[in-house]
Amino acid sequence: MKHIVVIGTGGTIASRWQGSGYAAEAAGSEVLALAAIPEGVEVRVVDLFTVNSSQLTTAHQLRLLRTVHEVLGDPAVDGVVVTHGTDTMEESAFFLDLYHADQRPVVFTGAQMPLDTVDGDAAGNLYDALLAAATGRDTGVLIVFGGLVHAARGTLKKHTLDAQAFADPSGKPLGRVKFGEVAWASRLPARPEPLPLPDAVTSIPRVDIVTHHVDADPVLFEAAVGAGAQGVVLVGTGAGNATPQFVRAVARAVEAGVLVALSTRVAAGPVAPLYTGGGAVDLAEAGAVLTGTLRAGQARIAVLAGLLSATGPAEQTAQLRRIVAAAPALETAAL
């Protein structure tokens, strides 16, 4: 038998109608009762918390991280499934992936339709996640949703309502669930060196996201710094571009010890130092760290992890560079 632990955190998969909208309220055992259990799999449920994932905090994510590591401290456990809301699943999954050193998989899944929806997607997604957790090895943290298996890094929610809600715009799936089996790709992700688990923190660093657009100025960027942000993600246009005013604001922030990352609002492709005149060339020179194919939410998680795992601006910047430069998933065969 494969022993899988399901950790419940809420989300749509645990939601019921509240009279004016849906909200997470069901326990993990209620969610699990919807799904068939794959043959040869034994499941234990841990109810961690039950919230809509739009309400998650870093404190929730740290609690989840430590719980997963505690669960995997039992050698009898073969894998972990985390049921999670789709709104911030990409952030929590990537956060856990940065610290995941175990060969056993941690699989995130959820639903686009609430718990009691007739012909909803909760049961199928949970069954597929249990399969992936029981059969995967050295895959890192995964998102299993809509019949596809994705690496956590680079995967984001691509559609608000569609059942196949997740994708890596710059990569390919790692597997596909077919006829009750996971068809894994011929090559799986290269696993970067995991970060050490963060110590207990009395103060969680504030990390904000600011987006560039036509007519944008650095007022919101500077407001974030003024509000005490220790890290800021600037979401540029194109390959990571803004204006000379943003360049000056970034330089001042970096000089003050703020960790600044540069992402892009474009769906796919890496941030690249191609343009001057306020572009990524100048922003990088001002001290912003380019985040490759990480989009805003996961870029923020990378900054947060850099702040939690190093002390002092120089060490934190070096740590962030290591995080964003970590080997991505290898090119996978067509599925």
What does it look like?
The active site is at residues 12, 86. By secondary structure, the chain is of the alpha/beta class. The protein has two domains: 2-184, 3-Layer(aba) Sandwich (Rossmann fold), CATH 3.40.50.1170; 207-325, Rossmann fold (3-Layer(aba) Sandwich), CATH 3.40.50. It is 29% helix and 22% strand. The chain contains nine helices and 16 strands. It has helices at 28-32, 58-71, 89-98, 122-135, 219-226, 244-255, 280-285, 296-309, 313-325; strands at 2-10, 15-17, 22-24, 41-51, 79-83, 106-109, 141-145, 148-151, 156-157, 166-167, 175-178, 181-184, 207-211, 231-236, 259-264, 289-290. An eight-stranded mixed sheet has the order 4-1-5-6-7-8-11-12, with helices on both faces. Strand 5 (79-83), helix 3 (89-98) and strand 6 (106-109) form a beta-alpha-beta unit. It is globular. The two termini are 28 Å apart.
Write the layout of secondary structure elements.
Elements lengths: L1 E9 L4 E3 L4 E3 L3 H5 L8 E11 L6 H14 L7 E5 L5 H10 L7 E4 L12 H14 L5 E5 L2 E4 L4 E2 L8 E2 L7 E4 L2 E4 L22 E5 L7 H8 L4 E6 L7 H12 L3 E6 L15 H6 L3 E2 L5 H14 L3 H13 L10
Report the uncertain regions. 329-335
The rough form would be described as globular
Please give the number of β-strands.
16
Order of helices and strands: EEEHEHEHEHEEEEEEEHEHEHEHH
EC number: 3.5.1.1
Domain L-asparaginase N-terminal: 3-187
Catalytic activity: L-asparagine + H2O = L-aspartate + NH4(+)
InterPro entries: AsnASE_II, Asp/glu_Ase-like_sf, Asparaginase/glutaminase-like, Asparaginase/glutaminase_AS1, Asparaginase/glutaminase_AS2, Asparaginase_C, L-asparaginase_C, L-asparaginase_N
